[in-house]
Amino acid sequence: MRLTAGTRSYLLAFADDEHLMGQQHTEWIGVAPFLEEDLAFSSIGQDELGHAAMLYEVILDADGVSPSDTAIDALAYRRSAADYRSCRLVEYRNGDWATALVRHWVYDTVEQARWGLLENSTMSGLAGLAAHATREESFHRLHANTLLDVLLQDGEARERILSALHRLETQISGLIAPIPGENEAVSAGVAKERLCDFAPELEAAIGTRFGVCIRLDAGEADAEFRLARSEDFGPLMARMREVLDFDPAATW
Amino acid sequence: MATYEVFLKKDGRDEYRHVGALEAATDELAIVLARESYARRAEGDRLWIVRREHIIDPGDEFVLPNADKPHRHHDGAAVAARRKAARAAQT
User: Fold this and answer.
1) Which of residues 13-72 of A touch B (CB under 8 A)?
2) What ipTM, to 2 d.p.?
3) pLDDT score for B49
4) For the domain B2-90, what is the CATH code?
5) Nearest residue to A125 (alpha-carbon basis) of A74, A59, A69
6) Given A34, A43, A149, which is nearest B36 (Cβ)?
7) CB-CB: which of B26, B28, B37 is closest to A36?
8) pLDDT tens-digit profile of B51-85?
9) CB A87 within 8 A of CB A171
């Protein structure tokens, strides 16, 4: 199935989100607050990288390009910044554990909804991929929720988590805002409905989980949001390309 | 935080084997962390975790005296020699 430009952009947004989120999670290896969490968080990140690779593969396939590792790498790492469709939440700089944990919970809550929209996709390969990813995602959410169950009971941890949540409000709005090309993807039957229709459900889920009310405002975070990169994208992409750039001609 | 011992079992008739330990704040967190730390590459298809404090350990002195009972170990050499002698006598 050939993709329209809109549908391609919609799928690319998901693939790019998975790619950058996976990368950022894996960067906690060696520096997470405790050893077990190093492994758990990186392992979850690897799942997301796997989802990204499979989504890139679906896109390449539809482009009529053989999805070799080289072709996937070119799509994943070698586009110009303006051609990425990632949201600001996944580009946001790493460094604070509370922020990473809140982002992990929010991202995976939304990711579950995103795969749900693709489970009956008319596009070949996508429904199967959605079923595969959904199985993994239940464990990602279990991990985030189990950690939060413990940490939200502690005064200082709770305070840090809630301030991280508020710090990320704009970025969370951007994750759930209309995605460029989304309407085309829905009318083509590639996605069941628009992700932004899930915003009230996400607000309610955040209320239940964190006990606070945040208003997700897609006003500023409209579709244009994913068309430009935030300031954190450059350094992140430089880290991601670091090894590739040692020897651009190498075959991996 | 409590320390947990982790056991994995592969499919079929293999027994559970000890694969390591971890620390976690709750039992629920311990199973999540055990899954990612020890079973993320499908090293087993069943997982047990046990709080280390629940392991009953009588100490090394409890079994060590049994190390000094060579008469409980035999390599069968004496029996083999007698059987060989008996066979030789028959022919």
Assistant:
1) 34-37, 39-40, 43-44
2) 0.82
3) 97
4) 3.10.20.520
5) A59
6) A43
7) B37
8) 999 999 999 889 888 888 888 877 888 889 999 99
9) yes
